[in-house]
């Protein structure tokens, strides 16, 4: 079994792949990396092709005969980076798991330092692109995203969505990702009780292809952020969220209705044509509905189902155990 599994999610990065694989092999053959392990060091590189249409799949297949540590998982279509990471996590056999993007912007030689940091007692080490080589169209939204995430989660790392991270395998086995939640992996890991930290890493300008970041990802990231906040704070106690909101709404509705009633009884003011009466009734109904939602959430919170969010087209060079996880045979 390998000591280290390197997961590379990719989508239309054919031009970058030869250099990336070469750099990964050079980084894996560093003596300093081998010295961090008590047993003879071995590794695997799991390339997860997220439905590429530029021939990335065929190029990876051609590499495998001369590079037996490379494994390929190919999706039927583009499912997104979160699904690609989930497939890689499922296939990983290493005691340590590293994720790195395929665009050559992250330095594979940073893996050694991150594993060393991990061995200080942490469960997840996230890269920190201190000097980022990206245009303002990416760096400014990233600063906003990281600032808001730090503010609402209380986690003080600087770069939540850095492509290069190193994990203990028990972290990747525990994470349940969907949507675009790969951006919030450090948040989910800490919520599960794991120790996280960060380490500055070298960042490089993109050499080939184009960024996959677009404005549509901003809104999907916002919705996933709200989901993560709810999951990390109220997943096991939904009544604390819906119950408090429902109680607040019900009390406000009751106070408004009582005020209108006393106005009618004591001052003989008309009731039927007062908008505030309808507001009170609406708040009462909303309060009951929110409270009921919280109660149902409490009843359902103990049953947690996990379903696949991707479809595998083919796998190449996986071990028997890895193939079994995906229900395939090679």
List keywords for this structure.
330 residues; alpha/beta; Spore Coat Polysaccharide Biosynthesis Protein SpsA, Chain A; 2 domains; 8-stranded mixed beta sheet; 12 helices
- Order of helical and strand elements: EHHEHEHEHEHEHHEHHHEH
In terms of DSSP E residues, the strand content is 5-15%
**Gross morphology:** elongated
Give start-end ranges of low-pLDDT stretches: none
CATH architecture of the largest domain: Alpha-Beta Complex
Across the major sheet, the strand order is 7-5-6-4-1-2-3-8
Describe the protein in words.
The protein is an alpha/beta fold. The protein folds into 2 domains: 4-234, Spore Coat Polysaccharide Biosynthesis Protein SpsA, Chain A (Alpha-Beta Complex); 238-300. It has helices at 17-28, 31-34, 56-63, 81-91, 110-118, 136-153, 169-174, 185-191, 215-234, 238-267, 275-300, 320-325; strands at residues 4-10, 43-49, 70-75, 96-99, 124-128, 165-168, 196-200, 312-316. The protein has an 8-stranded mixed sheet with strand order 7-5-6-4-1-2-3-8, with helices on both faces. Helix 10 runs antiparallel to helix 11. The chain is elongated, with a radius of gyration of 25 Å.
């Amino acid at each position: 079994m390998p000591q280290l599994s390197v997961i590379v999610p990719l989508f239309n990065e054919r031009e970058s792949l030869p250099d990336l694989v070469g750099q990964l092999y050079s980084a894996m053959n560093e003596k300093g990396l081998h010295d961090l392990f008590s047993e003879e060091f071995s590794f695997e590189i799991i390339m997860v092709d997220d439905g590429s249409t530029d021939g990335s799949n065929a190029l990876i297949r051609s590499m495998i005969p001369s590079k037996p540590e490379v494994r390929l998982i190919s999706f039927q279509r583009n499912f997104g980076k979160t699904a690609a990471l989930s497939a890689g996590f499922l296939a990983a056999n290493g005691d340590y798991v590293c994720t790195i993007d395929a665009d050559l912007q992250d330095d594979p030689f940073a893996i050694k330092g991150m594993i060393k940091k991990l061995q200080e007692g942490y469960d997840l080490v996230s890269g920190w692109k201190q000097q980022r080589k990206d245009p303002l169209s990416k760096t400014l939204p990233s600063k906003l995203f990281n600032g808001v995430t730090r503010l609402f989660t209380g986690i003080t790392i600087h770069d939540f969505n850095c492509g290069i991270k190193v994990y203990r395998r028990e972290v990747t086995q525990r994470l349940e990702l969907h949507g675009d939640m790969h951006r919030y992996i450090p948040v989910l890991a800490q919520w599960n009780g794991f120790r996280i930290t960060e380490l500055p890493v070298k960042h490089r300008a993109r050499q080939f292809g184009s960024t996959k970041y677009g404005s549509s990802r901003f809104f999907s990231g916002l919705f996933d952020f709200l989901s993560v906040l709810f999951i990390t704070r109220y997943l096991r106690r939904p009544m604390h969220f819906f119950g408090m909101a429902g109680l607040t709404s019900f009390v406000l509705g009751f106070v408004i209705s009582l005020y209108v009633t006393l106005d009618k009884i004591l001052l003989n003011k008309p009731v039927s044509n007062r908008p505030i009466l309808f507001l009170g009734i609406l708040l009462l109904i909303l309060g009951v509905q929110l409270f009921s939602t919280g109660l149902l959430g409490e009843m359902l919170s103990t049953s947690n189902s996990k379903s696949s969010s991707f479809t595998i087209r083919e796998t190449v060079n996986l071990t028997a155990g890895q193939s079994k996880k995906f229900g395939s045979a090679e």
